[in-house]
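USER:
Make up one protein:

ASSISTANT:
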Amino acid sequence: PVGYSDTTYFYDNNIDGADVVGDTDNFYFWAIRAVDHNGNISGFTYRVGEIDYHLIDGWNAFGFPYYVDGINQAADLAAIIPDVTDLSYYIGGTGWNQWTSALPGFNNFYIYPGYAIWAYIPPPPIPYDYVLTLAGRLPDMEDITYGLHNGATPWNDIMIPLHRTDLTSASGLHTDIPNATSIAKWVTDGSY
């Protein structure tokens, strides 16, 4: 019988013309099957994926879509983003939860799949240009839920869960969220 292996890496060898790591235009997902020397085939594993974000100096917003080995708290994520000084996420109706490198042990919040993360990189003498690569296991559908707030400051910072392949436009997301009045998307140049 085919056994189980928790392999969390692969080699990016320009497979069939696709440079997977560093490609900010495409996201990649796999479900792996094992085949042994007798031809026995396992069932599919959980889905794994790889996603890249282009970061610049200033504030950057990006989704945290996976369970990523070794990244459980803000300081873990900060360790893989060169020069980052602040990480935060917005709690609708409450405000910002923020970690800062000046006090790395203070407010080292937990990071969960589905979080929309904000990272601040101070402007350096030369422009900052970095691609953040995250690879990991996609969460189950029930692992991502949002408690949306509709009070005096009705903005909610969310990431569209990757299993929601039916949501491909702002109007589709607007229709899917009861009582939503507007949808905005952050882009790398610092605008909505």
User: Anything to note?
Assistant: Residues 171 and 183 are 8 Å apart (CA to CA).
